[in-house]
Amino acid sequence: MRLNSASELEYHLMLACYIQVVSNKTFTPLASQVVEVRKMLHGLSVAVSQRMSARPSAARSASLIATTASSLAAGESSLT
Known about the structure:
By secondary structure, the protein is mainly alpha-helical. It is built from three helices and no strands.
């Protein structure tokens, strides 16, 4: 979603330059900044996706908690 917003902003900047509301001198650094922000957003998106996929699923976490609770209730402890 955020990447689409960056692309939309870039399009609007190009349009503004085309209809001469924004000069080429102003457009060039702004377009470069939009591209840079898009790259940062993509990197953030990839990092968050990797972090989320590395987390155990909720079902696996619940199963691990239940197994640990059962073991503790039965007097088994891996802490000793």
